Amino acid sequence: MVSSNSFSKSTTKNASLKGWQEIGNAVDGVSVKYEVIKTVNSKEVLYGTGYVNRQVPERPSSDWFYLVYSDVPDDSSYRIKFTDLKTVAIIRF
Fold it and tell me: What pTM does this model have?
């Protein structure tokens, strides 16, 4: 879960994301992609991508992961989309 307190924009067109992630039963390791997106004219526009490739347990904020995205225009309504790159889905028909 990413709260609005975890995502911030600066006046220099940089955006930052801080947080923690723990993925239970992560046998093959952890890899999560975090994307800054915004819907513009009914389409998702990508403004930045970052990766965290380790477990980051919830601890004091100095131990959290920290990602910085550059060239994010000043505005609001950005969202963080995250994708677990290590989970394998088994689909049966």
Answer: 0.76
